[in-house]
Amino acid sequence: MASPSKAGAALSALREDLSGDVFAPGDPGYDDARIVFNAMIDKRPAVIAQCVDEADVMRSVRFARDLDLNIAVRGGGHSVAGSALNDGGLVIDLRHMRGVTVDPAAEAVRVAGGATMSDLDHATQAHGLVTTGGRVSTTGVGGFVLGGGSGWLDRWSGLAVDNLIAVELVTADGRQVHASADENPELFWALHGGGGNFGVATSLTLNLYELPEFSLAFLLYLPEHGPEVVRTYRDVLAVAPNEAGGGVLYLTGPPEEFCPPHLQGTLLCAMLLTYAGGEADMRKVAEPLLALPHEVEVAVGAMPYVDAQCMIDDPPGMRNYWSAEYLTGLPDDYVDVFCAGAESMPVPSGTIHVVFPQGGAIAEGPHEFPVPYRDAPWATHPFGMWEDAADDERGIQWVRDVRADARPWSTGAVYLNFIGAEGPDRVIAGIGADNYRRMEEVKRQYDPDNVFRFNHNIRPR
Q: Which of 63, 75, 280, 436 has its CB surrounded by the most CB atoms within 10 Å?
């Protein structure tokens, strides 16, 4: 660690050189700059550098290296583990780098490192184009894609990382590096699921797809109908085209106009069938689900994809703890276990207990990349969310219990964007043991000192 005088001089120089704002403890705006979406995360960086371009990022990395500071990178700030912050280090804050440039002729988009799904979706929808995005609009594109990228469109257009064309990266020595299939291909391979381990992604280029229409069916059922809903949904998705996606979930009836007052604050089962196509085709697929006895039709019909992306946006200021298991199937005995898990779910709260279908373009995608959960047909995702810190123990234990209950049907793989800090074995499970060893070599080449460690970390070999 540098001496106080050297650190002070370096901080003054960074403030002078950086185009964006620089915050240190005690500065006006510092506390606001360190807030992330998960209210359980309360960390105090030594410096927060709000970069506006690649040059700012390079200056910030060099500043941190000169002072022997660890580096955390903030894109959307949506990591449940709080990887966008650290204690006593530097945070490279990319929120001012949100540009999105669409090339309709090439059906490609270049996205700056701080852009959110909302930025991406609004820009591409203007051209009738989309790519797989996260299930909420506030997710940062960079972390989402480099972590794998599962969303409503993944059965149709593949995982987000399958659509990665190129990445501009600032490495641990402050250099700008281009990674693609033709340039630095080993780094490009590692960025398919290796997240922020190798540098700061200042831009990503992604494939786009034409999507003239998007539609969905979103229905609420009483919880006693849950097992029938899950089994019917499973059977529907088994023969549905790749255009169909979504999930079945348990949730607290929200205080919204669409939810009758007597159901608000109570446990409900919900079915969401998304469809990359028109309403008529969606209704044919959803017919068995629409025929089940339900309480509320929240939405059944055509909807702009960009609006669907906002439907389950998680509110800021909540306490979050998530986990996941990828499943070998969805047999009746697991359906019973899944539905029973809802009985102990914290209600009322923002907690969601969900199963997602996989298959389609996910399973058909490029198997050379480090995505070990690609072949799993289903995933379960206990998504704990509550307001009061007094509920932490109960909420965390419920998530852990649900995950433990699913293990007899688990493939052993996991999507790292769905989990918090669960230890090195889970990081390996999210990448694959052979892939992890290969990534250790890439890490050694690009970050031998493990400067970028506030993530699902890969240590250099």
A: 75
Q: Which tokens hold the place of 139?
A: 């997710």
Location of structure tokens 């894109």 = 75
- Residues near 183 by beta carbon (within 8 Å), at least 6 away in sequence: none
Report CA-CA distances (Å) from 364 to 153, 158, 414. 14, 8, 18
The per-residue pLDDT for 3 is 72
Q: Tell me the C-alpha distance between 92 and 84, whole Å.
A: 8
> The dihedral of CA 288, 291, 296, 299: what is its sign?
positive
User: Residue 320 forms beta bridges with which residues?
Assistant: 385
* Cα separation, 295 vs 26, whole angstroms: 52
Which alpha helices (H) appear in 151-225, and where do they start and end? 154-157, 185-190
Both tokens of residue 322? 């998530």
Both tokens of 268, joined, read: 């409900």
Q: Facing residues of 356 across strands? A: 379
Provide the residue type at 43 as one letter. K
CA distance linking residue 94 with residue 142, whole number of Å: 10
The whole-number average pLDDT for the span 330-350 is 97
Those residues whose C-beta lies under 8 Å from the C-beta of residue 401, and which sit 6 or more positions away, are 341, 344
- What's the pLDDT score for residue 1? 58
Alpha carbon 196 to chain centroid distance?
Answer: 13
At 233-277, the pLDDT tens digits run 999 999 999 999 999 999 999 999 999 999 999 999 999 999 999
Cross-strand bridge partners of residue 352? 383
Q: Which residues pair with 170 in a beta bridge?
A: 176, 200
Tokens of 323: 């986990």
Write out the two tokens for 433: 């043991």
> CA–CA separation, 331 vs 324, rounded Å?
18
User: Which residues have C-beta within 8 Å of that of residue 35, sequence separation ≥ 6?
Assistant: none
Give residue 2's pLDDT: 67
- Residue found under tokens 């609004």: 122
Contact 208, 132 (CB under 8 A): no
How would DSSP label each residue in 260-290?
A: -GGGTTSEEEEEEEEESS-HHHHHHHHHHHH
Which ranges constitute the DSSP H helices of 18-172? 30-33, 54-66, 117-125, 141-146, 154-157
CA angle (177, 183, 185) in 5-degree steps? 100
Count of CB atoms within 10 A of residue 232's CB?
Answer: 17
